[in-house]
Fold this sequence. Notes:
The protein is an alpha/beta fold.
Amino acid sequence: MIRTSKNPVLEKDAAEGAENLAARGEESLILAGPYGPLPVVVTPGRTERARQCVFVLAHGFRGSLEGGGRATDMARDLADLCTVVRFGFTWCTTLSCQIGEYRAIQDWVRRTLRPRRLYCLGRSLGGATALLAGCADEAYAPDGLVLWSAPHNLEQTFRQVLTDPVFDRLRAGYDLWLEDEKGRDLIRAAFVQDIFRYNLPEALRVWPCRPVLILHGKEDTVVTPDQAVANYAALPEPKEWVLLPGGDHSFSHGGAEAARLVRQWLEQRLENFVK
């Protein structure tokens, strides 16, 4: 069931989902996810043709569906091409839970909006989530995927994010509070322990041959550019990658260019889309 503050939208109304959302304009929903409620914002395509394609945005570790405003801006900018669905993972949950939530969002999109094409952009850990979901089950591999600052080596990445001492204590079974410029969050030991269930380099060998665009900042010190190079090398064709000069992990510099490249890539995918 989907609930909003204004109108409940039931799954039995799936056939009317896209039209209803288009009529109401951008709408915030709450999806009953597999591990709890998931916030969702749907920015409907401005035309009937645009509403036949859905672009799902999956945020990174300790991120949000607003993406500091950049995800919101991107959704509204792309509405002439497609419907954009942004959602929020359960806060600081495990990668396994994120994969389950990502699948639930895809299921809801396909059931309710019934797109003829479904694409995804995964930021950082959201990119790893989308890759792992699609590698494990081709039904969850979108028609195309954008990897935005996405990791290749999960242990290396989170040792960098958390520092070695914190990472090792979490791996040993201790829950710890993390306090930085993003706020103060409780990180469960299960979060670090869970990432050892996954091997991205191995998973990428069985990625279905769906188009992938890799965007990475040259100055990314969280997920270093060599990880983007490794992702590119491991993925099958068709694939593209762009290393943006001056870009850091969140593209606080170069964000406009990264967004332009995403739009260009989507336009190319949809160029021969049958009306």
